[in-house]
Amino acid sequence: MSEQYIVSMQKWCEEILESYHHSYEELSRNHHKDTLENWKSELEIFQAQLNKDDRPDNKEVYERADRLFTQFEAYFDDENNEQESILRAHNEAGTVPIGGHTLPPLPYSYDALEPYIDREIMRLHHDKHHQSYVDGLNKAEKEMQKARQTNNFELIKHWEREAAFHGAGHYLHTIFWNVMSPNGGGMPSGMLMREINQTFGSFEKFKTHFSEAAKNVEAVGWAILVWAPRSRRLEILQAEKHQNLSQWDVIPLLTLDVWEHAYYLQYKNERKKYVENWWNVVNWREVERRFHEAQQLKWKPF
């Protein structure tokens, strides 16, 4: 047995052990720790025998290395197969897997809402800010999954907060892009218009109320028109950041982002002007569609 072959096998042992230690946490989620430790011990015994004078012959060295590597590869195959099964089940059910949220595409080009919302604002807002909420939500979900698997909930308060912030940011922005359109503006019609008149007195009164709510959000946040299944009517809410000072048990219909990244490059500190111009791009057809589906949900009123 040549010394060069022995050196290469020793290096292989070091590399595969390094890979084992690097991947241990990931592998131990799906394989019993004793199984992994037994494999590691067998590899270390093999590695030690390579340094002895009475080491095995070429054929035995090759066969043992091949068996060890095949076992190690199988651990990853099992995990990948399990992940593929999970993803396949989610796809068939039409659900998003844990930590699998994605950035939805804009339903129009970056410059489609000009002159009311600048191209560069739309690009940064969608590609950078919304993407960061998607990434943050995925990270929080995976960390909470890890907490369940390890039974270590030391940081659960932090990750629950992260999930609330980034999750609300992701979901509100997903609505926001669709309730705007280059062919927007004007007024709603049909059932939504009747409901607005009944709840707020008139469209103008609704528009004024919604605009003032948006202009007066403390620091950064949203104005949101919602359907409330419990009271069975429309309401206007504020949200600070994305998730604070709002209500549960309601369905958002129309959202207006008044974080500074939504308008500052174009309007500077003139939030009022941004809010007034925003009405020119409201996609009432999408709001009407959301209302038609939402108002079918009605809880017992209290």
From TrEMBL:
Entry-linked InterPro entries: Fe/Mn_Superoxide_Dismutase, Mn/Fe_SOD, Mn/Fe_SOD_BS, Mn/Fe_SOD_C, Mn/Fe_SOD_N, Mn/Fe_SOD_N_sf, SOD_C_sf
Stretches assigned to the Manganese/iron superoxide dismutase C-terminal domain: 188-290
Coiled-coil residue windows: 130-157
Domain of life: Bacteria
GO molecular function: superoxide dismutase activity
Domain Manganese/iron superoxide dismutase N-terminal: 101-181
Enzyme Commission designation: 1.15.1.1
Pfam families, per database record: Sod_Fe_C, Sod_Fe_N
Keywords: Coiled coil, Metal-binding, Oxidoreductase
Family: Belongs to the iron/manganese superoxide dismutase family.
Protein name: superoxide dismutase
Naturally occurring in which organism (per UniProt): Metabacillus endolithicus
Lineage of source species: Bacteria, Bacillati, Bacillota, Bacilli, Bacillales
